[in-house]
Design a protein that fits this description.
By secondary structure, the protein is α+β, with helices and mostly antiparallel strands. It has 4 helices and 8 strands, in the order ββαβαβαβββαβ. The strands form 3 sheets. A 4-stranded antiparallel β-sheet has the order 1-2-4-8. The chain is globular.
Length: 126
């Protein structure tokens, strides 16, 4: 189970993806595309995923039916910081996630390198 790593001026980073709906995406945009919003009380874990395909499946198959739109975001995080979060296999061989406790999300956000970007979007058919 490897992570996609990149060398930047800031050091080694890992590429992560996050499937999201329109409400969460609006909050990311309000942050200047720099941070994930705090979790809701019923969301004790923030889970970015380790591959785009898995993020696409969640955005398309779960977020679109739930909210009419689904988005796949991509962002880089300091690799050394991520070592504290073991890779979790949440299903099949490629269903890989990191589980970040809600109370650690602000610190996680401080280790994002660059901006969070939307790389795919899906919408319900009219």
């Amino acid at each position: 189970m490897t992570r996609t790593e990149t060398e930047t001026r800031q050091g080694r980073t890992t590429t992560l993806w996050r499937p999201t709906g329109p409400e969460e995406l609006a909050l990311v945009e309000a942050s200047g595309w720099k941070a994930w919003p705090p979790r809701l009380p019923e969301q004790p874990i923030f889970y970015p995923v380790l591959n785009e395909d898995y993020a696409v499946r969640i955005a398309r198959d779960w977020n679109v039916p739930a909210s009419g739109s689904g988005y796949v975001t991509r962002f880089e995080v300091d690799t050394a910081f991520l070592a504290r979060y073991p890779v979790r296999q949440a299903g099949g061989e490629t269903i890989l996630e990191l589980w970040v406790p809600a109370e650690e999300l602000a610190e996680f956000n401080r280790h994002i390198v660059g901006r969070i970007e939307v790389v795919r979007e899906f919408h319900a058919r009219a």
